[in-house]
Specification:
Elements (H helix, E strand, L loop, with lengths): L2 H5 L5 E2 L3 E2 L13 H14 L9 H10 L4 H11 L20 H14 L8 H12 L7 H19 L12 H21 L14 H4 L5 H20 L17 H7 L7 H22 L8
Helix pairs in contact: 2-4, 4-5, 4-6, 6-7, 7-8, 8-10, 10-11, 10-12
Protein name: Xylanolytic transcriptional activator regulatory domain-containing protein
Keywords: DNA-binding, Nucleus, Transcription, Transcription regulation, Zinc
GO molecular function: DNA binding; zinc ion binding
């Protein structure tokens, strides 16, 4: 584990950097092959449409051939286990016994943290793993751990220059998708966990609207919602004495966002959660109106 993570005094951390609940050999634990496929299916059905952190075709090909990186496979399992349909797939190793969700996730989470790729050239792999870990947020310290994982992912993306336009070198679609996933998660982390934004629009060379045509409608909807969340966050910021307050953001309805994203063909299984996220932003925007006139002094 990184020294920064040790400084957090994580409640599962034991002397020597070993996580509580892990045993020798646990770092290689994964569900049986058929259960791996079931959990990967859940991930690509429920999460990937609006958070395309990795390419589906390549990931499924690696899974079928047994070449998928172990920590990435474990991260998919960790992300998918909360879905109700995942319950029969929560086994580890050769033992087909179904584990309680807390035990299953605790062992996998510990294994990933203790064995994250460390080499600099592995940043491209580590980045999506950290982003997936940031979605976990389990237990009383889950919010703190989640924001820490996301901050590391954002740090690596800055190092790799995902936010920059480099002359003569167009970024790949996958790197763009990963960056904009982090950009959106940063806004949700700020709103849910009370954190400062780590990715500021003034520091990147594009706006969300510039990249929308590259992606599927479900991701376009997600990015438009995250963009509006950014506007709401801006209206909630403290105001220096003598400065004007931000005007209330003009938010689109969910139907307008779906229409602009050409997203009416998106399944209800995806549109439902996206609409819930949009409702949350509307509620936050009404709260921000009550903060107008606030000051740091």
């Amino acid at each position: 584990l990184s020294p920064h993570f040790k400084e957090l005094q994580h409640p599962l951390l034991l002397p020597g950097g070993v996580l509580q609940g892990s045993r020798a050999g646990d770092e290689d634990l994964v569900p049986l092959k058929s259960q791996q496929e079931a959990l990967i299916d859940i991930y690509f059905r429920r999460i990937h449409p609006f958070l395309p952190l990795l390419g589906e075709d390549e990931t499924r090909s690696q899974s079928a051939s047994g070449t998928i990186p172990l920590r990435l496979l474990q991260s998919f399992c960790l992300t998918a286990f909360k879905d109700k349909s995942a319950a029969p797939s929560l086994n580890l190793g050769a033992d087909p016994t179904v584990l309680p969700p807390e035990r299953f996730s605790g062992l996998i989470y510990a294994a990933i943290l203790n064995n994250l790729p460390r080499k600099e050239e592995r940043r491209v792999l580590t980045n999506p793993i950290l982003a997936l870990l940031s979605l976990h947020g389990w237990g009383p310290h889950g919010c703190e751990d989640s924001t820490f994982m996301l901050s590391q992912a954002v740090h690596h993306s800055h190092t790799l220059g995902f936010h920059l336009a480099r002359p003569g070198k167009a970024p790949s679609k996958s790197s763009r998708a990963l960056f904009w996933c982090l950009w959106s998660l940063d806004r949700w982390s700020a709103a849910v966990n009370g954190r400062l934004l780590m990715i500021h629009d003034c520091d990147i060379c594009q706006e969300a609207a510039d990249v929308l045509p590259l992606f599927q409608p479900s991701f376009r909807i997600w990015l438009r919602i995250a963009e509006q969340l950014g506007w709401v966050i801006r209206s909630c910021r403290p105001v220096m004495a003598g400065n004007q307050t931000e005007q209330d953001p003009e938010l689109c309805s969910f139907e307008e966002i779906v229409e602009a994203s050409k997203g009416w063909g998106t399944s209800d299984e995806i549109l439902g959660p996206l609409e819930l996220f949009h409702h949350a932003i509307i509620i936050l925007s009404t709260h921000s109106k009550g903060l107008q006139g606030r000051s740091r002094f």
